[in-house]
Amino acid sequence: MTLLPPRSSRSNKSRDSALDYEILQEQAAALGRLGRALEAALAAVSNYDRAQAEPGHDAASSRWRLIMREYGVPAEVQNRMGVFDGGRSRNNSPK
Questions:
Q1: Greatest CA separation for the chain
Q2: Is the pTM for the entire model greater than 0.90?
Q3: 19 contact partners, CB below 8 Å, separation of at least 6
């Protein structure tokens, strides 16, 4: 009489292999999401640093402009909110 290995042992190997593959796929996807989040954070820091480097602007007004630009607040809405160009007039004429 010949003994054959139970069928369930073969299916367990393929099931384990499939599970390992799924785990690897999820790890790769998580790394991709984290990488994109890191890139977005670094871009925000870069934008902030660039706004700070503009001559003649203090940190508060630069930070405010960055927020308005980030959220895409239109100039018309900003004017109604009372947001101005940090004391600079648009036509460079004295007030």
A1: 107
A2: no
A3: none
Distance CA 32, CA 25 (A): 11
Structure tokens that stand for 10 in this block: 């073969």
Contact 12/18 with Cβ under 8 angstroms? no
Rounded Cα distance, 45 and 47, in Å? 5
**CA 6 – CA 23 distance, rounded (Å):** 27
Give dist(CA 65, CA 87) in Å, integer: 13
pLDDT tens-digit series, residues 48-81: 877 776 665 566 677 788 888 888 888 888 888 8
